[in-house]
Every structure is written in structure tokens, then in C-alpha cells.
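stuck on whats below:

***
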Amino acid sequence: MKCGACAARIQRSILAIDDEANIGVHARDKTVQVSGDLSDTDYMLAIQAAGYTPELLALAETEQANAEEPQSKCCGSTSAKTSCCG
């Protein structure tokens, strides 16, 4: 998967077999996270049908890859006037 069009193709293929699946497709790190009622094998077959070669990763590896993305952080202030967290 190299771009947003690839990500959209994978998402459509998964939704074709499970229209209620929760899907997170990340083209930049080439990962797909799916939760739904079907098996991992079913989702992998849908990804293959879209023209890609899926590889099952451990959840911890995927979470670590997503954690490496820059995210905004709270400034730590507890004052309602200065806190970036509300």
C-alpha cells in the first residue's frame, strides 16, 4: 500500500464482506487495523482480493508503530487559564 487510493481500495474490500467493521488504514506505515465479527483470515482474504499481500502483525507491534507518530501532548498545567488540556 503506497497511497490513499490503495488505502481506500483495501477499505472498500473489507466493507464488502463486513459493512459494520471498524477499519483503520494507515498508508504511511502500511498497516490496517480491523475489528469486526469475522476472522482475521476473512479480512486478510479481502485484502488479498483487493490486490495486496497482507501479513498478520501482533497488536503490540501496530500500537508501537502508531505511538511513534508525533502527537500533541498536554502541557501539564493544572490551571484552567493556562492548560492546553482544558
